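Supplementary Text 2. Reproducibility record for the structural model of the 152-residue chain.

All settings were left at their defaults, and a single model was retained for analysis rather than an ensemble. We include the record here because the model underlies the residue-level annotations in Supplementary Table 4.
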Amino acid sequence: MRLSALPLSLLAASPIAVAQTPQPLTELIAAYPYGEHRCSTVSPDDTRAFVGRGAVISILDVTTLPPVTEMVPIQEVEVPDVGPQALAYLRHPSPDPGSMVQQRWLFMAGGSLGLWRISLCETLFQPAPVACSDATFQRTEIDRPGSDSTWQ
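Retained model, structure tokens:
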């Protein structure tokens, strides 16, 4: 019996599971065409993207993407000592007792240049993001391959 020949009351009373086949992405929503992208990560709330390209990390607001647009970074942070090959974003679960601000960090692995962390300022994560002064991006070397240092 064809589905179209079933009585409407039977269709309403019987749950019918229809499997949906995943479709390929065919619509370009936004593009970030600047430089060679070596690595990227996104904040857990899907509001910010971080793109590593050479000695620069671009911070992007991905909350309002008009159809087919070039994304313009909120800010670009120079990391000449790293050359990121992998990025990871972390927001500390508890506020800093001194400032009551939740710390946000971007961890960068730079191959033979080691593991680094930069502090991210709060204004980058406001609904209307504001760029930070370069001094707020504290860059900390955590470990370097072949060294005796370890992260503490």
